[in-house]
Design brief:
7% strand, mainly alpha
């Protein structure tokens, strides 16, 4: 299993590219919810648990310390919470409400 730092490093280097990657892999999530945002749900597909994605740090159960949130990931999270990328918002009323319904791909 990748470390959290390795997983985050595998993401693209812009918020728009991160949104495209998450969308391509079906990782959707809830706005203003650090435990169920698209990035947190993507981390779930990689086997992480207890993830919390904040603008300045990310934690997972598998690691004893937090990791600074990379700039592009923080930018994505802030813009997602502000209303961008509505296609990544999880519709919990849909039949396919599982936010991690695609195969992982760092």
């Amino acid at each position: 299993m990748l470390s959290l730092t390795e997983a985050l490093a595998a993401l693209p280097d812009t918020a728009d590219a991160i949104a495209a990657r998450l969308g391509a892999h079906g990782c959707r999530g809830a706005r203003e919810n650090a435990e169920y945002c698209p990035v947190a749900n993507w981390l779930r597909t990689l086997g992480f648990t207890g993830q919390y994605v904040a603008p300045d740090y990310i934690v997972v159960d598998q690691e004893a310390r937090s990791v600074p949130t990379p700039g592009p990931v923080a930018d994505f999270a802030e813009r997602f919470d502000s209303g961008e990328w509505p296609e990544l918002v999880l519709d919990d009323t849909a039949d396919d409400a599982d936010p991690t319904d695609k195969e992982p791909n760092p």
